[in-house]
Design brief:
This protein has about 600 residues and is of the alpha/beta class. The chain is built from 15 helices and 25 strands. The structure holds 5-amino-5-deoxy-1-O-phosphono-D-mannitol.
């Protein structure tokens, strides 16, 4: 997803901007560009592909500029489509994240008015609209252009004539970094952490004008003050810390993430406040990708523990289902807090009068402005595109919610808390034995198709395991309820299609073993994920990934960590770009 950076201060702007753009690489991009304002003109540099390792770029000595990493939506990745985009007279340059839905009629009108366009992008209309309104004051020109735009945007504009940056946001993330005598504007916090930990989270409708002497934020033309937050993440948090990939580092952070998330909500007992759910008739989870799988685990656990009916919807499909009732609790799960589909689903829920809860990992993210209630996971920044530690943190919050919504007795809650507190140690034991998982991962690297199966709680785990595998290793991997295979997918089984079976020792156990036998009878190699006390399963499969014994409801945690490692080592053996898989973005801010 596109990344934005703007800088005004005393350092060489091109170097600051490029180093900040590199910190946004995790969002995914296919081209990039920088513009600086120097001596009454704009110097622009654009390139397709990665920024690369060059530490210093020579655009000029200017100390003001903007930069962008582009993830193509309108128009292919190319130099001409890369941002920054300029007006006809090359006096104004802008970078943009989001989508301008009405760009075509705007473009047609602007062309009739004499504007010349060079790119296929929706973004270019913004530069021309600002140009049209520019009479020597960039802020006024931006403000005049905004009402014409339909869609979502985070924009930063610069002009060749004034020493200022003007930035604004609507439904796309944007933060302001406040340094000593220098200011930064960016899509996300890691971009500015090298320079400052003081950050303002801009809100929808905010327009910020930044000069050397400070910044002013207006919303609807009225000056507003926004809190400067101190970000506690260190720059090291956002870097690899000795691991070959962010993904591996982040999997290894899981025990600490569980501890940190528990620390926030558990003392002797569970302190999480769930009063937002009082009198709710149903819970509806909306989420995408991995967060959707966390929601599916939530369905099993919450229904089982509390008896409250739970619906789980892909956020992108939510619009096509009946609106929630006013007594519903709609829960958006999104680690980034910026996933456009999830935000839109929650807006719909609010319009219907439902209560809205967000579970997110990012303080001040867009979802926190939409939701009535927010529960934070405490996973720290996740840079690898594949969600790993944040998924586990989501599960921990879901367990706490389920327990608080349930009719458990005090001693049952205490037992559950005890089990939760043991989870970090259980996960450490999986990480200590990752060599065994690496061997199996390397075995899988030669295949092109896989199936993942599970029943009950094992089903969302299978879906998530398959998503992880396909996302980073590019092996075609499908997750199925174990009972569904015989209704069609059996036709794909054979020695060229390994099957990963998530085997949980609960009421699904015997029947899952039967399903495994059916698979083996069709020659597929089978890898079972099972706990260390399971003495039966190894008789029927080719490999077993052993995980420590935990209460059955926590198997999604231990099994998922094992499956994340399995995908990681398969992808590594295949030589894939693990942290930045092709075509994917960390934060999907378009619908
Ligand atoms: O930030 P979100 O949790 O809303 O992101 C949702 C999905 O885009 C995300 O989980 C995606 O599926 C992951 N890359 C999977 O590893």
């Amino acid at each position: 997803m596109c990344g934005i950076v703007g800088y005004i201060g005393y350092s060489k702007a091109d170097n600051v901007i490029i180093s900040s753009l590199k910190r946004l690489e995790y969002r995914g991009y296919d081209s990039w560009g920088v513009a600086i304002s120097e001596g009454g003109r704009l110097n622009v540099y654009k390139q397709v592909g990665a920024i690369g390792e060059v530490e210093s770029y020579e655009l000029g000595d200017s100390t003001i500029g903007i930069g962008h990493t582009r993830w193509a939506t309108h128009g292919k990745p190319s130099e001409v489509n890369a941002h920054p985009h300029l007006d006809c007279n090359k006096r104004i340059a802008i970078v943009h994240n989001g989508i301008i839905e009405n760009f075509l009629p705007l473009k047609e009108r602007l062309i009739k008015e004499g504007h010349r366009f060079v790119s296929e992008t929706d973004t270019e209309v913004i530069a021309h609209l600002i140009e049209k309104n520019y009479k020597g004051d960039l802020e006024k020109a931006v403000v005049a252009a905004l009402p014409e735009l339909k869609g979502s945007y985070a924009i930063v504009a610069i002009s060749s004539k004034e020493r200022k940056l003007v930035a604004c946001r609507y439904k796309s993330p944007l933060i302001l970094g406040v340094g000593d005598g220098e200011y930064f504007i960016a899509s996300d916090v890691p971009a500015v952490l090298e320079y400052t930990n003081r950050v303002v989270y801009l809100e929808d409708g905010d327009v910020v004008t930044i000069t050397d002497s400070g910044y002013e934020i207006k919303n609807n033309g009225v000056e507003v003050s926004r809190k400067v937050e101190l970000v506690s993440w260190s720059i090291e948090d956002a870097e690899k810390g000795g691991y070959e990939h962010f993904m591996l580092k982040e999997i290894h952070e899981t025990p600490r993430v569980i501890e940190d998330t528990l620390l926030g909500y558990v003392s002797e007992t569970i302190d999480l406040d769930v009063s937002f759910a009082a009198g709710t008739s149903e819970i509806i989870f909306v989420a995408c990708g991995t967060s959707y799988h966390a929601a599916l685990v939530g369905k099993y656990v919450i229904e089982e523990m509390s008896g409250i009916p739970v619906r789980v919807e892909y956020a992108s499909e939510f619009n096509y289902h009946p609106a929630p009732l006013s007594r519903s609790l709609v829960v958006g799960i999104t680690q980034s807090g910026e996933t456009a589909d999830t935000l839109e689903a929650l807006r719909k829920a609010k319009r219907a009068g439902a209560r809205v809860l967000a579970i997110t990992n990012v303080l001040g993210s867009s979802v926190t402005r939409i939701a009535d209630y927010v529960i934070y996971t405490r996973a720290g920044p996740e840079i690898g595109v594949a969600a790993t530690k944040t998924f586990i943190a989501q599960l921990v919050v879901i367990y706490l919610m389920a327990a608080k919504l349930s009719m458990l007795t005090r001693s049952e809650v205490e037992k559950l808390v005890l089990e939760l507190k043991l989870l970090p140690e259980r996960v450490r034991r999986i990480l200590d034995k990752e060599d065994k998982i690496r061997e199996i991962g390397e075995f899988l690297a030669d295949y092109e198709n896989m199936m993942y199966i599970g029943r009950g709680l094992g089903y969302p785990v299978a879906l998530e395991g398959a998503l992880k595998m396909k996302e980073i290793s590019y092996i075609h991997a499908e997750g199925y309820p174990a009972g569904e295979l015989k209704h069609g997918p059996f036709a794909l089984l054979g020695k060229e299609t390994p099957v990963v079976a998530c085997v949980i020792r609960d009421n699904t156990y015997d029947i899952t073993l039967n399903n495994i036998k059916e698979v083996k009878a069709r020659d597929s190699p089978v890898i079972a994920i099972a706990d260390e006390k399971d003495e039966e399963v190894e008789k029927y499969v080719d490999f077993v990934v052993r995980t420590p014994e935990v209460d059955r409801i926590f198997t999604p945690v231990t099994y998922s960590v094992a499956l994340q490692l399995l995908a990681y080592y398969t992808a590594k053996k295949r030589g894939c770009e693990i942290d930045k898989p092709r075509h994917l973005a960390k934060s999907v801010t378009v619908e």
